[in-house]
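hi! just following up on the protien thing from before. the input was this:
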Amino acid sequence: MLYLNRGLGQGFSGDYKEYFGANTDNQAVVYMMLANDLVHRLLPDTGLTIAEDVSGMPTLCRPIEEGGMGFDYRLAMAVPDMWIKYVKEIKDEDWSMGNIVHTLTNRRWMEKCIAYAESHDQCLVGDKTLAFWMMDKEMYYSMSSYSPMNAVVDRGVSLHKMIRLVVHGMGGEGYLNFMGNEFGHPEWLDFPRTGNGESYHHARRQWFLVDDQDLVYKFMNEFDKAMNLLEEKHGWLATEMEFATERYHEDDKTIAFERAGLVFCFNFHPSKSYSSYKVGLDKPGEYRIVLDSDWPEFGGHSRRDRSTNCHTYKEGHTSKRCHMLTYMPCRTAVVFERVGSSNYMEDLVLEEQDCVANIVHKEYIPTPTSATAITKQFKMMKVAKKAENSFLDEIPAHFL
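and the predicted 3d structure came back as:
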């Protein structure tokens, strides 16, 4: 409704001319602004509006006072489309880490997004959920937790956990789940209609599957629960992403990023594991595992020792100032939390603290010196201010 041609027969590349021109339906835009203003006036503390827009209309989620339409969030609709294409059409070894990262982070700067791994369209008749695409008929015959998972189920459960965590951690400022998909609900949802003889057979969610402790569904559900509890504790959805020039490695099939003081690491490779994988970090310290998709309570193989912490080293990596080494088994995801200082970088931390103390001393304690010294002091203040704002240089152009 935002466009006079209703978006039919038109593609959107992101160029502002495609949004602010004669094709924009000004009356529809004003209606949206009025509707959002009404919601937020009547429900100032609880009112929430979410836009469903595939065109990428700018200012959709900016305040009306700024000339925006006033929505609180927008759906990241390209994300579920990407995942369904990957599991249906692309071999695991051909998955593009760069495309995954780009799709999850390609959103307008300062406009909040709701990320989700699969949409309601994939849960309705005519399509399949991600779990059903990956495991198919094995979901009927091979989901017992009393026997080792076969290769199909093991792959499906592993990727199901990884996909949801990378979307939750990197995809936006909110997270959406279609009920039942958190534990890999099989089959589809279909309401009574003429085409199915008014049947209620698939108008259901089979909750008994996750309640049955003899089935594998419990593992996916427990991981989803742990993931959401970890976010509730650290609040990464309300924290900006920390940008880096490189967050992925195409050949290794790995993705690594920092958010809310946590370090997220993914190895999507179907067969390669890495014993001492180098992960670049900005903050030195000792890091411990707080979530691991390979833990046995999540249906994993317990290949990583959860009691072993990682310490950072002085050498930088991928434009980060230091790095740590960690074990990265294939098809696993792990989240680290900083718990203390690194055994190998304490001297560097002390140097930084001394440097900061000197800058504060020189910046704020005036001394009766010459005009030359005052000029030097002013230059140091400018350098400190420039360093403070240098992170803006790392923001990708498509965010601005």
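The chain is about 30% helix and 15% strand.
The first helix runs from residue 26 to 42.
cheers
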